[in-house]
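Checked the freezer inventory, then went back to the computational side. Two predictions to log before the end of the day. The first one is the construct we discussed on Monday; recording sequence and tokens without edits.
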Amino acid sequence: MSETTIDTNVLGEKIVRVLKTIYDPEIPVDIYELGLIYDVFVNEDYDVKILMTLTTPNCPVAETLPLEVEEKVKSLNDVKSAEVEITFDPPWSQDLMSEEAKLELGML
């Protein structure tokens, strides 16, 4: 069998590691722990689609943050393309933050 099957779990973990290097400029916590990433889809062609939100629709990085996410995910060797889709449904709330993020921000 010369066919290589993609291990989407391994690639997913790599993508999460990259997402954890991207920070919201106003909050000293990465976007993954903040709960801004709703979903990551990877298909067999190594195309990645990320469904994410922003803390507010008027977020000062609404233009640049999705681009940064796309660029950093695309920089992974296994990724052919990356697309970020912004959604405000459901709207972001502090409930989406990880325990780690809440601890970091003194909310626990």
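The second is the one RB wanted added to the comparison set:
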Amino acid sequence: MTYEAVREFAGSWMLLFMFVFFCGAVLWALRPGSSKQHRDSANLIFRNEKAPAPDAEESRKEART
């Protein structure tokens, strides 16, 4: 392969592949079913073995009563 062939491939098809991959990753991260996983990941640093943080569902139930 010559430099020109690799350059042409990288400038066209690889760019298209990377754009499609980026859009897929963004859509996967923002899908409706992932909010619980994101919430758990965000609260992970607040959990420890001695006094674990309550689950999101338990804290909502306590707030309602």
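For RB: The chain has three helices and no strands. Helices lie at 3-29, 35-42, 56-64. Let me know if you want it refolded.
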